[in-house]
Write a structure and sequence with these properties.
Blueprint: E1 7-10, H1 16-25, E2 29-34, H2 44-54, E3 59-64, H3 69-79, E4 83-86, H4 92-102, E5 106-112, H5 115-119, E6 130-135, E7 165-167, H6 176-183, E8 187-190, E9 195-197, E10 200-201, H7 203-217
Parallel strand pairs: 1-2, 1-8, 2-3, 3-4, 4-5, 5-6, 6-7
Antiparallel strand pairs: 9-10
C-alpha cells in the first residue's frame, strides 16, 4: 500500500539559488537558521530577501536556539515565517509562551540517543505543533543539529505515523527511503545531507533528496 507523501523540509538555506532549488524540487518547508554558531546562520538582511522570495511558494521556518523574545520578534518582523522551530533547551512552558506571544505554529526539536529521550518528548506533545526527532548532539557540541549523524531509527517504532512529527539527523538521498520505511515518519528534515561542504547547499543534492523521499514513502 502506498503511504502518504511525507512532508519534506530543507533546512539551513542561505542563498536565493538554493532556496529556488528547494522550491523547484517540491519541498514543503524551507528552514532558515538564526544561530550565530552555526555555519548556516543568516543575518536579517538576507532573511528579508529570502523571506520575500519564499512567500507563497514554500513554508518558511525560522530556526532559533534558546532565543529571547526580542530576538524572536525581530526575526518574525524580517522573515515573516510560517512556523518557528525551537532547537534548544526550551521547556514545554517556554514553547507555549512563544506560541501565545507570536501566534505561529511551533516545531520543537527533541535530541534522541535513547528511548528515554523519545519519552522526554511527551510533555511537548500537547504544546508544540510538530515534534522533530533529531540526533542528540555530543556533550559540549557547539551546535544542536546539522552534524550529519543518524540515530537508531527503531527508537521511533512506536510513534503514530499519522502524528505531527518529523525525522531528522544524518538523512540524505541514499538513506531517506530506508528511514521512511523503518519509521513511517510523516515528515523528514535534512540539512547537511544536501551539502557539498559544511554549510554549503547543493542544488542537485536537494533535488535528489526530495525525489528519494517521495519515492521512499511509496516503497
Amino acid at each position: 500500500m502506498t503511504s502518504p507523501s511525507p512532508r519534506i523540509k530543507i533546512c539551513g538555506l542561505t542563498t536565493p539559488t538554493h532556496l529556488a532549488a528547494a522550491i523547484d524540487a517540491g519541498a514543503d518547508m524551507a528552514g532558515f537558521v538564526f544561530f550565530e554558531k552555526s555555519p548556516r546562520h543568516i543575518d536579517l538582511a538576507v532573511a528579508r530577501v529570502l523571506g520575500m522570495m519564499a512567500a507563497g511558494r514554500i513554508l518558511k521556518v525560522a530556526l532559533t536556539v534558546d532565543a529571547r523574545d526580542d530576538d524572536l520578534s525581530t526575526i518574525v518582523d524580517e522573515l515573516a515565517p510560517d512556523l518557528l522551530q525551537l532547537h534548544g533547551t526550551e521547556s514545554p512552558e517556554r514553547v507555549g509562551a512563544v506560541k501565545a506571544r507570536f501566534g505561529l505554529p511551533v516545531i520543537k526539536a527533541i535530541g534522541v540517543a535513547s528511548a528515554v529521550d523519545v519519552g522526554s518528548a511527551a510533555p511537548y506533545a500537547g504544546v508544540a505543533d510538530i515534534l522533530l526527532y533529531d540526533a542528540k548532539p555530543a556533550p559540549g557540541a557547539a551546535v544542536p543539529g546539522g552534524a550529519g549523524v543518524a540515530f537508531d531509527w527503531s527508537l521511533l517504532a512506536g510513534l503514530d505515523p499519522d502524528g505531527s512529527w518529523m525525522l531528522s539527523g544524518g538523512l540524505d538521498a541514499a538513506n531517506v527511503g530506508e528511514a521512511l520505511r523503518a519509521t513511517r515518519a510523516p515528515g523528514v528534515d535534512v540539512s547537511s545531507g544536501v551539502e557539498s561542504a559544511r554549510g554549503v547547499k547543493d542544488a542537485a543534492l536537494i533535488e535528489a533528496f526530495v525525489r528519494a523521499a517521495r519515492g521512499g514513502a511509496a516503497g
